[in-house]
Structures are given as structure tokens and as C-alpha cells.
Amino acid sequence: MSIFRDKQIKHFLIFVAIYNILLVGIASWFYQNQIAETKSMFVEHDTAIISSLLEQGVSNEVIATAIFNTEVSTNGTELLKFLGIGENSIGNSLPYFSQFHHYSLIKICFIGIVLIFVLLLGIFVFLWSRNQLFQQAGKVINNYIQNDYSYHLPQNSEGEIFRVFASVEQLATMLQSQKETEHRTKEFLKNTISDISHQLKTPLAALAMYQEIIEAEPDNVETVKEFSTKIGAALKRMEQLILSMLKITRLDTGNIVFEKTLYPVKEVVENAINELTTRAIHEEKQIIIYGEPNQMLICDMDWTGEAIGNLVKNALDHTEPGKTIHITWEKSPTMLRIFVSDNGNGIAPEDIHHIFKRFYRSKHSLDTPGIGLGLPLAKSIIEGQGGLISVQSDLHRGTTFTISFLTKS
């Protein structure tokens, strides 16, 4: 039974068992002691009678016959009544019995007091320890109510009460996790709004300036045309920024459900670069893909394509005309890897650990296009599907991004 797993109850039950054994032992001792006292009283009484009879000259034979006699006669009964000795005689007429009764009463009272004290002490210790446990639990639960989860309920024993404590502790852990999640969500939203506000300041300021210039020279067609083009570019950058931030926010908050299906890797890659081949041709760059055409990958086609596309865009941004971007893939018994490699400018060692941070822009690439969200978005997409993304780069020699997905055996 689970009640016997509670250490305090177990100790109390052991105390009760020992107490009962002690009680039986004392009762047995008291019984033997009373028998011995009774024998001693009768021997002393018989000795006094024999001594009195001997002093009066009664022979030993007569005394011996009287002592061992077991028959009761009417004359004997009448004589005892005449002497005032009977079942209802007062103690003074039976001095030996009176003394025996007095000592026996003292022993019974003493033993009774000791047993009651031991019993009450055991009950007090049990109730005190139980009360201490409840007080400790009450303080911890009150701390939980005050949102202080630094203390924990006792978990060092078994039993029903500790099962209740474990359930309360689990509930407190859930509440703490929920509060931490709410706090992280608030911080995330706060940081996201701050990031968007900060990033929108530049294009908004540019738009205001362009609008003022156009208003100042409304009749200058070239000026209007030039700054109208700049307004369009700024608006496009703002749109790209807001869409990217919304995507990252939805990914980070778990509001995106990836619809995973089995696709050929080649089809996923071709879908990713479909809109980038024209840009590559225009910039005199080349995108080459090769790999086993029958290799399959379980993923969300659109989101994975966007992640690969962002890596390819990053490669196009950091390669010179005439350079090449390679997209390859290989499969092992446990892993499928997609590589996006270029022979461009590479990444400086001091930047390699920061490139997946939002809005991070290396001082070496301030003159290249981009808003610093492509790589973080790619990382969120890949990791959201249970994959990994890593990077290796040599400055001025090129960069390789590796996307890894576990494959089912």
C-alpha cells in the first residue's frame, strides 16, 4: 500500500508496533511480579502465624498439619468472622494485603503514567513532524502564488502526500513555463517591433526627402523621374523588409505548419532558383546544379525552396561577374545534404559567427544589396523542419552553405 511508503507514517507505525510490544512486555513483567509478590506475602504471613504458634507451645506436627491443610471447616469460618476477617474486611485488619495493595497501586500508576507519556510523546512527534511538513509546503505554495519558483516542495519520500506534492510541483512547473513563454513572447514582439521600426526609419526618411525634392522641382522631368525611381526602390525594400519580418515572426512563434511531402531534390532546387536564373544571366553569373536526380527529400516544397533561394541570393550578392554558384546534393544512410557554394568574396572570420543574426551587415559588404534577413529566414525555415544549416568560408576564395536533413532508414 502506498500509505506505507510515507516515511513519517512508516516511522509512526513502527513506533506503534514497538509501543504495543513494550505494552505486552510490561504487562507480562507486571503479571510475573505480582505472582512473586503474592507468593512472598503468603510466605511472610504463614511465617508470622507459625512463629506465633511456636511461641505458644504448639507442636511442629500440629503446625505442619495446619499449614498444609486445604479443607475448610465451619468452625474455622466462624472464627474468622468473629475475628473480623473476610472478603469485605478493611485493609487495617489485613496488614499484608494492605501493604501488597498499596505497592501494587503505586506500580500500576507509575507504569501507566510512563506508558501514557511515551504514547503521547510519539503522537506529538508524529503530529509535529507532519505539521512542519505542511508548513514548509504552505510556504512554498505561497511563493508559487507570488510567482517565486526558486523553492520546491519536498520530494524526498513516497506516499500519498508526496504524490500530491509532486502534482503541485508539476503544476507549478507548467505555470512557470507558461509565464516564461509569455515573457519571451512579449520580449520577442517588443524586439520585433523595435527592429521593424529601426529598419523602416531609413527608407521612410529617404521617401520623405525624395518627396520634398519632387515637390521642389515639379517641372523638372528628369528629377521627378529619377527620384520616382528611387521612391519605387525604397518602397520595394520596405515591402521586402516587412514580408521577411512577418515570415520570421510566424516561424519563430510556431504559426507556420510545414506541409511535408516526398519530392525529388532536383525538383526542390529547380523550384528555388526558378526566378534567380534571369538575375544571374543579367549579372553575367552562372548557376550550376548537379546531383543524383533520383534522390528524394521529405520537406515543404515552397518553404524549403525559399530557404535555398535566399542562400543563392546571398551568393549572387557576393560574387563578381563571371563567377559561378554551384548547388549540389548527396545522400548518406542517415543524412541528405544540399550544398550551395560560390567562389566569391567569402566571409571574414570575425563575421562568420554573426551572419545568421537578424539585420547583421558586415562592414565588408555595406555596398552590397540586402537587408540582413535572408540568412536568418533560411535558418528558421530549415530548423523549423528539423534540419540544420551550417557555413564554411575562406575570405576572397568563396563560401559553402550546407543544409542537412535526417533521412528515414
From TrEMBL:
Catalyses: ATP + protein L-histidine = ADP + protein N-phospho-L-histidine
Q: EC number(s) for this protein? A: 2.7.13.3
Q: Which GO terms describe its molecular function?
A: phosphoprotein phosphatase activity; phosphorelay sensor kinase activity
Where is the protein found, in the record's own terms?
A: Membrane
* Keywords tagged on the record: Kinase, Membrane, Phosphoprotein, Transferase, Transmembrane, Transmembrane helix, Two-component regulatory system
Main localization of the protein? membrane
User: Which part of the chain is the Histidine kinase domain?
Assistant: 195-409
What SUPFAM superfamilies does this protein map onto?
Answer: ATPase domain of HSP90 chaperone/DNA topoisomerase II/histidine kinase, Homodimeric domain of signal transducing histidine kinase
Residues crossing the lipid bilayer are 12-31, 105-129
Q: By its UniProt entry, which SMART domains does this protein fall under?
A: HATPase_c, HisKA
- Which CDD domains does UniProt cross-reference here? HATPase (cd00075), HisKA (cd00082)
Q: Per the record's keyword annotation, is Phosphoprotein included, yes or no? A: yes
Q: Which domain of life is it from?
A: Bacteria
Q: Name one Pfam family in it.
A: HisKA
What is the protein named?
Answer: histidine kinase
User: What gene is this protein translated from?
Assistant: srrB_3
